[in-house]
Each structure stands twice: as C-alpha cells, then as structure tokens.
Design brief:
Layout (H helix, E strand, L loop, with lengths): L1 H19 L7 E4 L5 E4 L6 E3 L4 H8 L5 H4 E5 L6 H7 L7 E3 L5 H4 L6 E5 L3 H10 L3 E5 L4 H15 L2 H22 L7 E10 L2 E6 L5 H8 L3 E2 L11 E3 L1 H6 L4 E5 L5 H9 L2 H8 L4 E4 L14 H12 L6 H16 L3 H16 L1
Parallel strand pairs: 3-4, 3-6, 4-5, 6-7, 8-10, 8-12, 12-13
Antiparallel strand pairs: 1-2, 8-9, 9-11
Helix pairs in contact: 7-8, 8-13, 13-14, 14-15
Amino acid sequence: MIKKSMFLLLIFILITGCVSAMPGDLNIDLMDTSGDEVTLTSFPDRIVIAGKQTPMLANFIYLFDSADDKVIAIENRSQSSNAFLSMIDTQFTEKLTIEKGAGAEQISPAEPDTVLLKASMKDQIGDQLEEIGIVPIYVSFETIEEIYRDTRIIGDLMGNEEKAESIVAFYENTKQNIDNTVSSSPDVPNTLMIQITETDGRFVYSVPSENWLQTVMVEELQGYPVWKDKVNGGGWMEVSIEQIISWQPEIILIINYQGNSPTIIEKLTSDSVWQGFLENSSVSLKPIVYDFQSWDQPDPRWILGYASIARYLHPDSVPASIIYDLVRDFYVEFYGLDLSFINSEIIPDIQFQIE
C-alpha cells in the first residue's frame, strides 16, 4: 500500500510539474537593464513599445520572428520605422499607434502584458504603469555592451535565447573583424561627427554626448573625436561654425535623421563660409548612411554604421565591398529580406552615399 501511494505521489508530482511548465503557467524571471528582477506569469503575447526611441526598440524586437504576433502597439515618434516594419510584418497596419508622449492612461486600453521602455522613461511612464498593474521592461541600448546585454533581455522576453545569442555573436564577430582590419592602420584622423539640420535657410549643428554610441564608435575605430572634451551634459550640444573650424577636423561625418545628409553636403559646399573652410583645409565631408534609419544610432543597424565609419576613417584598409557584403548578410539573416530586393533597392543607395 505504501509503495502504491508513493507511486501515485510520484505520478502526481510529474503531472503537476508538466502542467506548471505549460505556457501561461510559467514564472518567467528576467533581469532588465534597471537591475530589477521581473517576474511574468507567461511569455507576453501583447507587447507595447513606448517612450523615447521607440523606432529603435521596435527594430530590435523585430529581430525575433514572433514579434509579428506579439507587438500590438508602438508609440509614434519623430523618427519612424513604419515603412521598414510594414515590409517585414504583414500585420503591421493593424497595430495600434500610440500618440507621442502618451502616459499610462493612453497605454492601458491596449491591455498589454508588458511595455518595453527605455530605462530613462521609468519616472515618466514606468512608475505610472506599475501603479495600475502593468509590468514595464526596461532596456538602454546606449553603448555597444548595452546593445549586447539588452538584446539578450529581449531574447528572454520573447522566449528565444538562442536567437539572441546568435545576434550577439554576429555583432561581436563582425566588430572584431573590423577592429582587426583597422588595427594595422597608422592613421588616427581628427574626426567630427555632427548632426546638421536646416531651419529657415540656416544650418544648425550639434554634437553627441561623450558617452554616446556615436562617440564610442569613432574612438574604437581609431579616430580622434575632436568634440569629446567640449561636450557638456548628456544630450546633443549645439555648436557654431566657428567652433567646428577651430577643431580642425580632417573628416566630418554628417548625420541627418531625415536621410538628407548627401543633400546637406551639397548645400555646405555652395555655402560661402563653408567654401572658405573647405578651400583652406583638407577636410572631407562624409554622410552617415541612411537606408530605413540612420546608421549612427543604437539601432540593430549600428554594426553597419560601424563598418561604414571604418571605411571613412581608414579607406586604404577597409574596402567598400565589405560594407555591401555585410548589408546583404544583415538583412537576409536578421530580417529575412529577399536578396534581389537588397541588391536592387538598398545597395545602390548605399553605394551612392559611401562612394
């Protein structure tokens, strides 16, 4: 009788153990970028992406195939990934669009299982969400190491750690190959990476923070970021043309988040002040590449930006063909784009900007 009872108890334990492992009854424990352990009762089926840099967060989460079904709403921001995501997600037009700057009261009607936020949004939105019982997941995606870490966090969230590890391995291996290629170059060019916009016929110039990805990429690629020691605060800092000239850059990498860097360069070369600057120096102007997004940002395309900046800083060491091959591998492996589409619609535009 005792043996029979023990046998029945063992069967009960096995059965309940299997039931607890079924989707919907799990306790999913993950550590987000805030350092807090987050427990979910199941892998989320309804994910909202909100707050700052939602286009980049969306592009990262769409590295995982199940994003098509799981992402239900994305906040509208000045930059948008809609055109790109519509290509890879046939359900994208059915998703909700949340107004820019939305609070918990605008997000809650979507009934999300979780909301993906930048860590900087905790005080603005995250705490509100927690008060009404919605679990936020925080990521940062500001540095290369944070990109690796936060990709793994999203992999945990999506229940696909294997894919996350393959993405990180791709980044690490590609970066190492690029670093090895430029390491033999003796050059450390004075480099300025600058965002330029045009407002009412006037150019507005701003440089990134000293710890931002843009600055880090220049440094790690053996460029000297001439603006780094002059940046105050943690955001974009506006500078004057006089300051730009005084830095004596050899290469100026021009960012425009509307994809207009080549046009900006054309206008600079016909501007009287810039003409004098260009005539009296050996500085070269190069556009940060833009396809669906600008490549300088903490977006999955950062590795493409890394390769193109390596090409700009060390043209004798890094052939353009490396970038074109990398773009093909990136879009095929990460997003499943058709190779013929990449060759006809993406590569020619990149060639126009890099050459």
